[in-house]
Design brief:
The protein folds into two domains: 118 residues, no CATH class; 84 residues, no CATH class. It has eleven helices and no strands.
Length: 279
């Protein structure tokens, strides 16, 4: 009985021992293989580190000695391209004032100190304003620059900045398809320092006939500007005052009357216009 009971256990222990030995052998073999793999991996990492260190040491020297000029040229080229793109974007968004980017650095100083230079520039600009073969944006830019020259010289007028130039811009607005550009053109004209009865009549006509409310407002502002600027010329101021008063009292369009009221401010201006007209 005892031998029969022991035999199975001995077999089982032998089998287990055999299996354990096989497992241990497999683990040892696996461990050896893993050690070899780890060793190889560490070797590759070590070589990679050596290459990185070598690259880090030698690359700056190579760049400075061999490719520094090409590298600098590339950087400056990219910067210049970026600058040109910004200028192009600015000109596209601000066609009237885009000329600023093309002016020489000493432009203002030369306008102030070199009469011949300033006179020649202003003559050229006026010719551009009058040249109907140029685009509306080019002509408006020329007019804006002409006005800027006048401000640089701290003057109320220039020989080249006359009614003929202003009239050319006004005439151009009648057929302009670009609404935003047309608004900018009328803004420019409404702020002109030129005092002329013909210009006042143009503003009156805009107020009466222009369908756009913003343009009506610009015309009213232009008319009031003509009135205030003509203070040194009583005859002209009286005529402008009469035009304003007649327009205000006889306006059939309530919008026109409201716009004039807003521009005039209060009843004191109405009284002033009446006194001047009857004086």
């Amino acid at each position: 009985m005892s031998n029969e009971n022991i035999a199975p256990n001995q077999v089982n222990i032998t089998q287990i021992d055999s299996q354990n030995k096989q497992s241990i052998g497999y683990l040892k073999a696996t461990e050896i293989n893993n050690d070899e793999k780890v060793s190889k991996l560490l070797g590759r990492i070590s070589k990679l580190e050596e290459r990185i260190n070598t690259f880090a040491i030698h690359t700056p020297t190579q760049l400075s000695e061999q490719n520094s000029q090409e590298f600098e040229s590339l950087i400056f080229s990219l910067i210049e391209k970026r600058k040109q793109q910004e200028i192009a974007d600015f000109k596209a968004e601000n066609p009237i004032n885009g000329f600023y980017e093309d002016l020489p650095k000493d432009y203002e100083l030369r306008i102030k100190t070199d009469f011949e230079y300033a006179n020649q520039i202003s003559n050229d600009l006026k010719q551009k304003v009058l040249n109907d073969s140029l685009s509306a944006a080019e002509r408006l830019a020329a007019m804006s620059q002409l006005q800027m020259n006048m401000f640089i010289l701290n003057k109320n007028g220039l020989e080249q900045y006359d009614y003929q130039a202003v009239e050319a811009i006004l005439d151009m607005t009648h057929n302009m398809e670009d609404k935003n550009l047309r608004f900018q053109a009328i803004e420019l004209v409404s702020r002109t320092p030129i005092i002329d009865e013909r210009l006042s009549k143009s503003f009156v006509k805009m107020l009466e006939q222009e369908p756009n409310d913003y343009v009506k407002n610009l015309a009213a502002e232009g008319l009031m500007s003509q009135y205030f600027q003509s203070e040194s010329n009583p005859i002209k101021q009286k005529q402008i005052a009469l035009n304003l008063l007649l327009l205000y009292e006889n306006a059939t369009d309530p919008k026109v009357k409201m716009i004039l009221q807003n521009v005039m401010g209060d009843e004191r201006m109405i009284k002033e216009l009446k006194q001047l007209s009857n004086g």
